[in-house]
Amino acid sequence: MAEEQRTQSKESTIPENEVFVGKKPAMNYVLAVVTQFNNGAKAVKVRARGNAISRAVDVAEISRNRFVQDAKVSTIAIGSEELANEDGTKSKVSSIEITLER
Amino acid sequence: MAEEQRTQSKESTIPENEVFVGKKPAMNYVLAVVTQFNNGAKAVKVRARGNAISRAVDVAEISRNRFVQDAKVSTIAIGSEELANEDGTKSKVSSIEITLER
Fold first, then answer.
1. String of b and e for B71-102 (b: at least 16 CB within 10 Å)?
2. Is B20 a member of any domain?
3. Which among B51, B65, B77 has the least Cβ separation from residue A54?
4. CB contact under 8 A, B73 and A78
5. Per-residue confidence band for A64, with pLDDT thresholds at 50, 70 and 90
6. Residue A2, domain member (yes or no)
7. What is the value of pTM for the model shown?
8. Quick check: B53 and A52 CB within 8 A?
């Protein structure tokens, strides 16, 4: 019961200069990264969990090599997060956070 | 003839302290990482390309959190490599290299 207290609106907590990579084609997220740089962002974080981690690396590499060529990878962090499954069990999933900076 | 001089057994060109992550279950590679640390390695590199990148992050996280708890992620590098396809065309693929250090 008490564990419900901390659930705020999860969707709106993604900050502007962050791109969360999911299951869509990589180019969708590349477009989001490029747009943020074009809007004046000095740094953009590309984040992903689980199988999408490979795609996040693609997104960072494509953005940097093809579209925002003055951007560099400033930091990369990996970690583990615990997710609740539908059946109530928990599983650990890896995560990545790549910061591109121009 | 002279070119034969440098050809040593190709299989052994993967340095000892390196684990190249492919399509097998993550635990296979975790075992390789743990074994190298147990054999006295101070640092182990976990490398992967393409879709295996997610698994490489899993391998690093599982090794660090469960088996070699004094190991830390010292560096993470991402990059792009060009691979030749069977039909002669080339495609770019992302890569990752995670260095664990104890």
1. bebeebebebeeeeeeeeeeeebbbbebbbee
2. yes
3. B51
4. yes
5. very high
6. no
7. 0.82
8. no
Partner-chain contact B80 A98, CB within 8 Å: no
- Residue range of the domain that includes A48: 15-101
Contact residues on chain B for A61, CB-CB shorter than 8 A: 78-80, 92, 94
Is there a domain that residue A10 lies in? Answer: no
Q: In Å, how far are A88, A92, A93 from A84, measured between CA atoms?
A: 6, 9, 10
Contact A78 B60 (CB under 8 A): yes
Q: The domain spanning residue A56 has which CATH number?
A: 3.30.110.20
Give ipTM to 2 decimals: 0.81
How many CB contacts within 8 angstroms connect chain A with chain B?
48
Domain membership of residue A1 (yes or no) is no
| A32 pLDDT above the threshold of 50 | yes
Residues of A within 8 A of B96 (CB-CB) are 57
Closest CA to B94 of A82, A42, A21, A3: A21
* B76 contact residues in A (CB cutoff 8 A): 76-78
- The Cα–Cα gap between B26 and B54 comes to 10
For chain B, the domain total comes to 1
- pLDDT tens by residue, B9-53: 445 455 669 999 999 999 999 999 999 999 999 999 999 999 999
